[in-house]
Amino acid sequence: MRLIVLGAVVALVVVPAPVAQAEVPPIEWTACGPEHPGFECATVTVPLDHDHPRGAATTVALTRKPATDKARRIGSLLFNPGGPGASGIEYTWAWGAKMSAGTEGRFDIVGFDPRGIGRSNPLRCFANEQERAEFLAAGPIFPYAPQQERPFFDRYRSLASRCDQPIARHMSTADVARDMDLLRRALGDRKITYFGTSYGSYLGTTYANMFPGNIRALAIDGVLNPELWSSGRQIESDRVAAREVLDEFFRLCDEAACAFGPDSKRRWEALLASVRVKPIQLGGEVWTYDRVIERALFAGYASEAWTDIAATLDQLSDASAGVSAAAAVYDNFFDANLGNMCADIEFPRTFGAYRAVSRYAAAGSEFGPYWWWSTSACADWPVNSDRYTGPWRAATSAPVLVVGNHFDGSTDFRGAQAVARQLPNSRLLAYAGWGHIAYRRSQCAIDHIHAYLLNGTLPAPGTVCPANPNPFLDPAHQLGDQDFRRSTGPVAGR
């Protein structure tokens, strides 16, 4: 059945031909401003199409926190936080001091907004934030009733024409990897030192396979299986991963007697049955089935938020049972997320195929359709001819550190295990706890990542960092991430 349903999704392996090398762009650093002390900013010009390095150009925006130990400076540490669509500049401003301190001040910590994102000639599918909000409000977050499916599919597939701009035709991960190698040269590094989280793991894996001889150190955390992602089969993971984390949420909630317990799993199933029939009014807000699913999905990202999530679900459960209880700045995360994903992946083209895969997704868990239906924006979107879809088994010039959490609702542990098998020169580090990205919540993992980036020291084979205490019993012990980005639409960030 899986072969039948997913047959329309599987893409052919496309190995791009070698391209001419672009000229190294000059970088002129200036202070980012008083609101970001200690950081410098710059913009560089890169080819829009690396097949034509002397043709049209686009821009990539950068920031850096210069090395503080200049006498022992190693080079630059490039960082990508994921998305696709998240700003590497914003996250570097948030995490740069932590990375610099953890690596003894011996790197310039460099973040960049990949092409089409944030400050880098961004893809904008709407005139303003209000217009995008109206588009999203015109339907559910994802279709959860049969009569919603066709209107949702037609509305989302219309985004291909709405977003048809030159940058949208050159936003594949392979394009970003080529930009990254150009940045490596512009920064003066013979080989790259890179740290990527979530979707940034896919960028790192792509770079490692396209430029295997250019690796000094490459660490990826919250890892996507590139064989699933590039072929459009990520739903095989998404349909089960979030529910695996939610089952842990229920187990630990009941163990700690949290607000949603006791018997939290039974209360969850009763809540879903109720809200599917009738929306819930709570605190002046209307909670529909799709909104409740989205709220619970957040448990797969941030274990430090579990107490708050449980409180919300408790209030919604009581309400369902009849118990009382200015102009926006344009953020192109939603647009860029689709721009990159649709450039990379050959998704189905017909409504019938989408509906068939949706049934497969729903059979995995209640979260499957949430992840699947937003990709219908790609139904009429042309893939980038320069995308990279494998092979994924290159022998890199230095070992790759692969980090995965046992319970991660967005990039499940199986993705890290797969990449560790695929890359022959790699080492797997596990965190036995809950949440998205070990670097956000495990001091053990943080220390191993810093030691590896600094001097190439790998954890011993089979190393597993212990889980933090039960988040319901000791929420203060969770490191968390105050800069974690929530979705700006029905596509949650990776």
From TrEMBL:
Q: Which SUPFAM superfamilies match?
A: alpha/beta-Hydrolases
Q: A Pfam family in this protein? A: Abhydrolase_1
Organism superkingdom: Bacteria
Domain (AB hydrolase-1): residue spans on this chain: 77-226
A molecular-function term among this protein's GO annotations: hydrolase activity
Query: Keywords of this protein's UniProt record, alphabetized?
Result: Hydrolase, Signal
Q: Which residues does UniProt assign to the signal peptide?
A: 1-22
Q: Which InterPro entries match?
A: AB_hydrolase_1 (IPR000073), AB_hydrolase_fold (IPR029058), Pept_S33_TAP-like_C (IPR013595), Serine_prot/Carboxylest_S33 (IPR051601)
Could you tell me which Gene3D superfamilies the record lists for this protein?
alpha/beta hydrolase
Annotated Peptidase S33 tripeptidyl aminopeptidase-like C-terminal domain ranges read 367-465
Q: Where is this region: Disordered?
A: 475-494
* Family in the record: Belongs to the peptidase S33 family.
* Protein name per the record: Alpha/beta hydrolase family protein
Q: Which organism is it from?
A: Lentzea atacamensis
